[in-house]
């Protein structure tokens, strides 16, 4: 089965990558779960820390994915795509800090902005045909998981 044409491995691995985000949201919304998770795993692995640190890692990881697409671009498009590929990591480095509300807000903005870079790679034929479907699903999961840290 290939929902939206997405091969099973990228879909399952992408969805598995949402687990830390979903856990962070759950611990942000449930004080009891937060206490249980903090006691069992340590405070680093409950909201807001898990969502913000993992979100920073994944946003930076996505810079590497885009860099990979840039390696397939023609000589005219490659420089622009290489430039775009470093933006998510730089965004995370410069803007994800301060308190949890502002950090989560900037992460959400970074993931939404990343969709524009993904769309560019797709439009240039550098990403697989199913890429945007996967990215939309995963970005929705990330954004919805970070919202409890903002609201």
Keyphrases for this structure?
mainly alpha
In a few lines, what is going on in this structure?
76% of the residues lie in helices and 0% in strands. By secondary structure, the chain is mostly helical. The protein has one domain (8-150).
Low-confidence stretches: none
Return the structural class.
mainly alpha
Count the beta strands.
0
Please report the number of helical segments.
7
Give the rounded overall mean pLDDT. Answer: 96
The major β-sheet equals: none
> What overall form do the CA principal axes indicate?
globular
Number of domains: 1
Strand content: under 5%
Question: Helicity, in percent?
Answer: over 70%
Write the element-wise H/E pattern from the N-terminal end onward.
HHHHHHH
What is the rounded distance between the termini? 37 Å
Spatial extent as radius of gyration: 16 Å
Task: Give the SSE layout.
Blueprint lengths: L7 H9 L2 H11 L1 H11 L7 H22 L7 H18 L4 H24 L7 H20 L1
Keywords: Membrane, Transmembrane, Transmembrane helix
Pfam family, one: DUF3429
Question: Would you mind describing this structure in some detail?
Answer:
By secondary structure, this protein is an all-alpha fold. It has one domain. The chain is 76% helix and 0% strand. The protein contains seven helices and no strands. α2 (19-29) packs antiparallel against α4 (49-70) and α4 (49-70) packs parallel to α6 (100-123). The longest helix is centred in the last third of the chain and has 24 residues, at 100-123. The model has no long low-confidence stretch (mean pLDDT 96).
């Amino acid at each position: 089965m290939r929902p939206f044409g997405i091969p099973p491995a990228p879909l399952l691995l992408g969805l598995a990558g949402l687990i830390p985000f979903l856990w962070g949201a759950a611990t942000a919304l449930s004080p009891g779960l937060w206490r249980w998770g903090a006691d069992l795993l340590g405070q680093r692995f409950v909201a807001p820390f898990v969502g913000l640190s993992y979100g920073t890692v994944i946003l930076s990881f996505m810079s590497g994915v885009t860099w990979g697409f840039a390696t397939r671009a023609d000589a005219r498009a490659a420089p622009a795509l290489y430039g775009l590929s470093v933006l998510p990591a730089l965004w995370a480095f410069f803007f994800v800090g301060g308190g949890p509300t502002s950090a989560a807000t900037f992460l959400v903005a970074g993931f939404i902005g990343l969709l524009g870079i993904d769309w560019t790679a797709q439009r240039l034929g550098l990403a697989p045909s199913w890429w945007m479907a996967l990215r939309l699903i995963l970005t929705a999961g990330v954004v919805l998981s970070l919202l409890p840290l903002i609201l």
